[in-house]
Amino acid sequence: MEPEYQGLGRCTGCFWLAVAFDIVGLLVLLIGVFVNVFFYDLLIYAGAIVIFLSLIWWVFWYSGNIEVPPAELEDDVGLLKKDKGGLSGVVRRLSTRVSSSIRNSFRRNGGPSRAQRSATRQTVAPQGEQVAVSMATVTPHEDTPPATVSTEAASDVV
């Protein structure tokens, strides 16, 4: 038998953290508004951010207190009673058989072995050659071919 919760419900820790964040955020925000300090804008923003972060605790508290009857949970958490007869039982058995045969065929004829996969992962070291690259801006109305790089200019590239 599940205990019956009164007042704040199950998640009292989340409730009190949400209230604390709200109070601290409101105090910091009001200090930034009404106290004459040179960093008032920092206090206003910090208070607003702390109040916004309290929403996380309010959501935790609210979602922790949602009660769902076990009849509605059957399908979601694996408590579903499997039918052995009828059309749904036939479909379930067929689905299980097809998925297991596909899974087993991948295991038998699947991808490369671990040794083959590790051999293909070896990286090729880059070679120390320099390549001269020619770049030019081409507009749609330009009919002239792009400029070529002479071999003397390519040898000057470091």
TrEMBL record:
Residues 147-158 have a biased composition (Polar residues). The keyword Thylakoid does not apply. Keywords: Membrane, Transmembrane, Transmembrane helix. Residues 103-122, 139-158 are annotated as: Disordered. The chain crosses the membrane at residues 15-35, 42-61. It holds the Pfam family TMEM238. This is Transmembrane protein 238-like. The lineage of its organism: Eukaryota, Metazoa, Chordata, Craniata, Vertebrata.
